[in-house]
């Protein structure tokens, strides 16, 4: 099976210039992007195996001396291609703020406490079916300087590789029903509502662990579809 | 196993300003890096090179919170990916690197000069390195390519030929004076000197 990566799939992404998100104004291209055919350089991508992911890298609640504060959650799902096939053995990285909405990053100095038992970084590899799973803490909302009284809805950053360099995706996972959605220019930079909803995880009662953790499901769909669908043969 | 056909890809969102402790820790945070800016392994053959430069925004200000990723073939023009059906390189060279820019927008990669890779018609492309640029203020990463000056194959490269002649120089890393193979490649996100980005 050969995967192809039609540029039409890119229509789901936000426009690079989205002026409501002010930082895009000086950081988005002003000249047209140059279309080109994909060559082997675009169609291949890095392959990283188990040596990249350590045994407990997927559990952000056991990296410190004791447990971090906050609401323990399971975040799991499948990495899929555009046809719904699982993307196997691919690297999934995440990073996030702590339960108070504070990042470990030195630049984040807003008045909310750091948690000595929470770094907020994790890493997993999808299995043969494309399934991944993390255990973490539900991140808090936090203020930012984009406009007066701007707050980011709670989110977890995801970085995923997939089958090729052009299937590379960095995105943010949101939580269902967040009251900050209507006010966030980053979330709303995705103009199509159906596409926007693909960034919102689903509350997953079935996989909640009783007396231990709530669960959210987040499927991540990467570019890539079968070049020769079966029904056409 | 196949899930119901998705109604589209997951939209991209910005990497934001706080990715460093998760993606480019480089010893500054209590987390190990999956990737670094040094692609060279002890068994890698080929010419050792350094590519360095700075990233600038549309005002010409440096971008200190940018993440760069590169992907490239080995010196024989083969990718470390089973999807490259030719004989795989028998070295541990992975061909992938990542770095976060410093306070001056600066970056460097230590790698080897890649060999030539054919285009879909079998025509050789000039040696090049694939580049992906991520930053706060970028809702979707940009793809570019790093070519090398003084390379005869540039003149017949099918991708460079698609680029207006007056913008081609933005894709060509310039060899710096001195004995070491150091190439300079600045990245301009916007404006008169804007780096060519590809719609791929």
Tell me about the largest β-sheet of chain A. Answer: 5 strands, mixed
Assign the CATH superfamily of chain A: Aromatic compound dioxygenase
Which class best fits the helix and strand makeup of chain A?
mainly beta
Structure class of chain B: mainly beta
Task: Report on this structure.
In chain A, strands 3, 6, 11, 12 and 13 form a 5-stranded mixed sheet that branches. By secondary structure, chain A is mostly beta strands. Chain A contains 2 helices and 14 strands. In chain A, β7 (142-144) and β8 form a beta hairpin. Chain A is 4% helix and 25% strand. Chain B has one domain: Protocatechuate 3,4-Dioxygenase, subunit A (Sandwich), CATH 2.60.130.10. The longest helix of chain B has 4 residues, at 20-23. Chains A and B meet through β2, α1, β4, β5 and β10 of A and α1, β5, β6 and β10 of B.
Which helices and strands occur, and which strands form pairs?
The complex is a heterodimer of chains A (233) and B (200).
Chain A: E1 3-4, E2 34-35, H1 40-43, E3 72-80, E4 91-96, E5 121-125, E6 131-137, E7 142-144, E8 150-152, E9 155-160, E10 169-174, H2 193-197, E11 202-203, E12 214-217, E13 220-221, E14 225-226
Parallel strand pairs in A: 3-12, 3-13
Antiparallel strand pairs in A: 1-14, 3-6, 4-5, 4-9, 7-8, 9-10, 11-12
Chain B: H1 20-23, E1 48-56, E2 66-71, E3 96-100, E4 106-112, E5 128-135, E6 142-148, E7 172-175, E8 182-184, E9 187-188, E10 198-199
Parallel strand pairs in B: 1-8, 1-9, 6-7
Antiparallel strand pairs in B: 1-4, 2-3, 2-5, 5-6, 7-8
Précis, in short:
Chain A has 233 residues and is mostly beta strands. Chain A has helices spanning 40-43, 193-197; strands spanning 3-4, 34-35, 72-80, 91-96, 121-125, 131-137, 142-144, 150-152, 155-160, 169-174, 202-203, 214-217, 220-221, 225-226.
């Amino acid at each position: 099976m050969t995967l192809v990566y039609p540029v039409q799939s890119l229509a789901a992404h936000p426009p690079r210039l989205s002026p409501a998100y002010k930082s895009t104004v000086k950081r988005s291209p002003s000249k047209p992007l140059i279309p080109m055919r994909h060559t082997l350089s675009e169609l291949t991508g890095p392959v990283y195996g188990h040596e990249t992911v350590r045994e407990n890298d997927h559990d952000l609640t056991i990296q410190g001396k004791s447990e971090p504060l906050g609401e323990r959650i399971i975040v799991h799902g499948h990495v899929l291609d555009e046809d719904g096939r699982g993307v196997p053995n691919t690297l999934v990285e995440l990073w996030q703020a702590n339960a108070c909405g504070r990042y470990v990053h030195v630049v984040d100095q807003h008045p909310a406490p750091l948690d000595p038992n929470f770094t907020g970084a994790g890493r997993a590899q999808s299995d043969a079916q494309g399934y991944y799973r993390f255990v973490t803490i539900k991140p808090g909302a936090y203020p930012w300087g984009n406009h007066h009284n701007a707050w980011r809805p709670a989110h977890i950053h995801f970085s995923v590789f997939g089958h090729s360099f052009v299937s590379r995706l960095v995105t943010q996972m949101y939580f269902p029903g967040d009251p900050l959605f209507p006010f966030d220019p980053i979330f709303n930079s995705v103009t199509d509502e159906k596409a926007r909803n693909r960034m919102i995880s689903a509350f997953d009662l079935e996989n909640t662990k009783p007396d231990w953790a709530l669960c959210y499901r987040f499927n991540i769909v990467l570019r890539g579809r079968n070049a020769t669908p079966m029904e056409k043969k | 196993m196949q899930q119901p056909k998705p109604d589209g890809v997951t939209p991209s969102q910005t990497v934001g300003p706080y990715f460093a402790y998760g993606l480019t820790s480089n010893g500054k945070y209590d987390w190990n890096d999956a990737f670094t800016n040094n692609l060279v392994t002890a068994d890698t053959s080929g010419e050792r090179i350094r590519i360095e430069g700075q990233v600038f925004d549309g005002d010409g200000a440096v971008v200190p919170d940018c993440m760069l990723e590169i992907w490239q073939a080995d010196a024989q023009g083969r990718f470390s990916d089973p999807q490259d059906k030719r004989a795989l390189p028998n070295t541990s060279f992975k061909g992938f690197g990542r770095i976060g820019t410093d306070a001056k927008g600066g970056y460097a990669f230590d790698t080897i000069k890649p060999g030539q890779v054919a285009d879909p018609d079998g025509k050789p492309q000039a040696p090049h390195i694939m580049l992906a640029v991520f930053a706060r203020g970028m809702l979707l990463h940009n793809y570019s390519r790093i070519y090398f000056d003084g390379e005869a194959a540039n003149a017949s490269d099918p991708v460079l030929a698609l680029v207006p002649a007056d913008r081609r120089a933005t894709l060509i890393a310039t060899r710096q004076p001195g004995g070491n193979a150091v190439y300079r490649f600045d990245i301009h996100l916007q404006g008169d000197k804007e780096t060519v980005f590809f719609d791929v």
